[in-house]
Amino acid sequence: MNRIIVIGSAGSGKSTLSQRLGEALSLPVVHLDRYYWKPNWLATPSEEWDEFLEEVASRERWIMDGNYTRTLGIRLHAANAVVFLDMPRILCIYRIIKRRIQYHGKTRPDLNEDCPEKLDWAFISWVWNYKKSSRPRIVEMLERVKEGKQVVILKTRNEVKEFIARLEKNGRS
Q1: Domain 3-172's class?
Q2: What is the C-alpha separation between 170 and 173, in angstroms, rounded?
Q3: Cα 162 vs. chain centroid, distance in angstroms?
Q4: Using CA atoms, how far apart are residues 154 and 13, in angstroms rounded to an integer?
Q5: Residue 45, Cα to own-chain centre: how many angstroms?
Q6: What are the extents of the domains in the chain?
Q7: CB atoms < 10 A from the CB of 94, how many?
Q8: Are 85 and 9 in contact (CB under 8 A)?
Q9: Is 109 helix (H, G, I), strand (E, B) or coil?
Q10: Strand pairing partners for 105?
Q11: Please, is 160 exposed, middle or buried when counting C-beta atoms within 10 Å of its C-beta (0-12, 13-18, 19+)?
């Protein structure tokens, strides 16, 4: 595993898991939110975003975390492993509220500067509805690539802890 994508709902733990994987496997981590969002939460234009993803995906070693379902195909094509954090929605809601409080008026480490943490009803609604609106398409895409890629689906915090522990143990031996 040297090209890994980590996907899942906001609040599922993508950034945290990516950091842990990067440390365990000595791989550079690319937090896609950091590159997609320009200062003041301005989105990168689609053409520019696609070019950025193509360039990063062409590198030999990486971990990329983020949703961006429109461009998931680019990352899936280049990756040799996928970790899908299919966490309970209530956990994801709790985590996005927690990080809003934790980073009030500040920018999270996995975001671009000048993107202070924010939370609105549209975002909460997107997280709440992730399982029915985004998850089916992701599961379908993973089903299509599972023969040629390592696909790991983690559904609980304990599964994530066990997964990290296995990788850290294998990395040390």
Answers
A1: alpha beta
A2: 5
A3: 19
A4: 11
A5: 20
A6: 3-172
A7: 12
A8: yes
A9: coil
A10: none
A11: buried
